[in-house]
Amino acid sequence: WVAEKMEEGDSRQQHDHEGELEPSMELEHAIGFGGKIRSCLLFHPNNRDVVYTAGGCVVIADMSDPHNQVFLRGHDDNITCMALSPSGRYIASGQKGDNADVIVWDFDEKRLIFRLQSHDTGIACVSFSHDEKLLLSVGCNTDNRLFVWDMASGLMTGQSAAVEKTDSQDIRCAVFGGFLKDIKRRDTPYYMFITAGQRCIRLWALDPHTGAWVHQGDALTTLSHVRDYTCISFSPDRKCVFVGSTTGDVTVFDTKAKSMVDSKQVCQGGVDSLLVLPGREDGHYELLVGGGHGSLTKLYAEGAKMSFVRDGSTQLLGGVTSLSLSGDGVEALAGTAAAYMYRARIDDLRTVLVSENHSDAVTYIAFQPDSSDRFATCSTDGTIRMWDLSDYKVLCKGHCKDGGVPHCMAFALECLLSGWSDGFVRCFDAETGEMLWKMSDVHRGGVTALAVSHNHRFMVTGGEEGDVRVWDIKQRDMVAHLKEHNSAVTSVCIFSDDAHCLTGSRDRNILSWDLRREKRIASLRQRMGGVNSVCLASDQVQVVSVGQERRLTFWDLRDPEPVTAVNLPDEATTVTLSNTGRFIGCGGKDQVVRIFDFEQNRLLMEGAGHSGCITCVRFSPDDRQMVSTGEDGCIFVWNVY
Question: What is the pLDDT of residue 410?
């Protein structure tokens, strides 16, 4: 496991043979939020910090200081569920994949306490008991196991099958409800919790000392009211439990009678999150309900009957998948499936946007040539965002609903040109994010690579079928068509004279072109596998490439054979050169960012943090920072010294 504090970073300072201090890198900031996961954004009781997931990482962030982040990394795949203990002492996170572990973290010391390894394929939900002595973990449908863990020792105290019929049932949410009460409503020593999911809701009670089940998945009576439940919350007095469903209603169950009492239709798109507010007298309950279409609704229930609160609804961007109450109970933190974070006042539901992020894989990065504090990213969520590196906020956003996936970008003066999987090139205003114009049928099968000339008059694009085309930006007309590649073009680099360009392709070839004569003048061929990414040195002769053969390869355009190559642990998907030409940055399927010395062809430093394949790395124009993006939807900013 790795616990990284971003203020200090994961810097690796090495020394060469003469004892001089070598360059180092540190993780300065992570941009990203796994908003599609339910209950993945949690307000810490200290009223200052928030805990959320970003790919396979747990991030602890200070609400008042964007530079103060703590980064907990112990998972090797995306996190699927998370829970915070009532006092905020512990964090529990579960992941999917072959190593479907549950990790318990110490919040104050920012370190891993327990790694619980009994589940397979994935974790559906985790929950702490009211006194923080027990942790519940429930596996996904293919795992179908439920475990209760002792937080003093990390040992298992109870286990069971989660559902009886895995073909028609699964568990999607679970929550502890304090101690089971006897017939006179007095606490017994048995811990009670509820699990709910597809067509089932069940009550459990465990004796933690013997591991015996007092209630082992007793089904609550629903009669003909059959639902797929998504979220669950106990009332403060634990007499009732409120459950949200995919049909958009909230159902109330009586825990003593183990039966349904009432149901209320609340929103469209299903109920994705539910929060019962404390502070009301017995028998009076107030709820916040997050809807799948972005509604945030306040409900008031007296006894077992619910009624709407007047003016108790507001609209957010994206389905509300997370709701968490602040320590003082004044506001709630809301996270949405579109990767937005909001603060909402409880009394009037006024909301303030805290942050916005890409909600899916980030595919490309572009810096403005003369600006080191602004950069742009594009994502498979169909958006292009411009970021400010001083506070990591979004300056502007461009969006295209039906354009497919943006694969590549380049700045042209105050415009941002982007290539999309539908074969279009779209131009956005870099100041406002407004789409200015678009070109159709640039490439059949999609635009896979794009570069803008240094005089900003023309661009060179590469397509899915191997075509390389030159376009006049002002007239939006094709100037030249170069066809020698027979597979997707992955990289385009334009020489400083704007008369030549370099292209790399999945067909294993790296070709140099004379754009005026529309003729190939040099050809390099990778020994095995396609070329994923190519960059051109400032001398316009040396070339660095990465590809499917798992090597960092150095070329001279005057020699068809590689000058040298460095073996990599896994396939690299992206490579870039620093503007001074001193460093090479690369990343790929092993999720590690690496920086090499260009002259000596040796590894200088590496940084871990991504939980998905790295899609792009770029140095800022002043070379003081490097930005990396990944399929996990995260953007990492690294300081390079």
Answer: 96
Beta strands 551-556; 351-356: pairing state: unpaired
* 52-61, 298-307, 627-636: least confidently modelled range: 298-307
Tokens matching residue 139: 């596996």
Phi, psi of 498 (to 5 degrees): 60, 15
- For residue 306, CA distances in Å to 183, 250, 264, 295, 309 come to 26, 9, 7, 18, 10
Q: Name the nearest CA neighbour of 624 among 24, 8, 7, 69.
A: 24
Q: Using alpha carbons, select from 315, 308, 311, 352 the residue that is nearest to residue 330.
A: 352
For residue 398, pLDDT over 90 is answered with yes
What is the share, in percent, of the chain residues with pLDDT greater than 90? 74
| pLDDT 10s digits, 14-23 | 333 333 446 6
Strands 331-336 and 320-325 turn out to be antiparallel
SS (H, E, C) 595-628: EEECCCCEEEEEEECCCCCEEEEEECCCCCEEEE
At residue 12, the pLDDT reads 33
Q: Point out the least confidently predicted range of 64-68, 152-156, 191-195.
A: 64-68
Listed residue (441, 495, 446, 440) closest to 466, CA to CA: 446
Tokens 């996990």, residue located: 632
The dihedral formed by the CA atoms of 292, 298, 300 and 301, expressed in degrees to the nearest 10: 20
Q: What pLDDT is stored for residue 107 in this prediction?
A: 96
Cβ atoms within 10 Å of 421's Cβ, excluding its own: 18
Alpha-carbon distance values, 457 to 404, 479, 530 (Å): 27, 11, 31
pTM (2 d.p.):
0.89
In sequence order, the 6+-apart residues with CB closer than 8 A to the CB of 180 are 187, 188, 190, 191, 192, 205, 214, 215
Per-residue DSSP letter, 550:
S
Question: What letter does residue 84 receive in the DSSP assignment?
Answer: E
Contact, 626 vs 28, CB < 8 A?
A: no
The one-letter amino acid at 282:
D
> DSSP assignment of 115-178, as one string?
EE----SBEEEEEE-TTSSEEEEEE-TTT-EEEEEETTT--EEEEEES-S-TTT--EEEEEEEE
In this structure, are strands 519-525 and 509-514 parallel, antiparallel, or unpaired?
Answer: antiparallel
Please report, in angstroms and rounded to a whole number, the separation of the first and last CA atoms in the chain. Answer: 25
CB 482 within 8 A of CB 506: no
- Average pLDDT (107-117) is 95
Cβ neighbour number for residue 9 with a 10 Å cutoff: 18
**Lookup: tokens for 123:** 């974790």
* Closest to 446 in 3D by CA, of 403, 414, 482, 399: 403
557: phi then psi, degrees, rounded to nearest 5: -60, -15
Q: Which two tokens stand for residue 277?
A: 């507010």
Work out whether strand 559-567 and strand 572-577 pair parallel, antiparallel, or are unpaired.
unpaired
Query: Which two tokens mark 273?
Result: 């999150």
337 pLDDT above the threshold of 90: yes
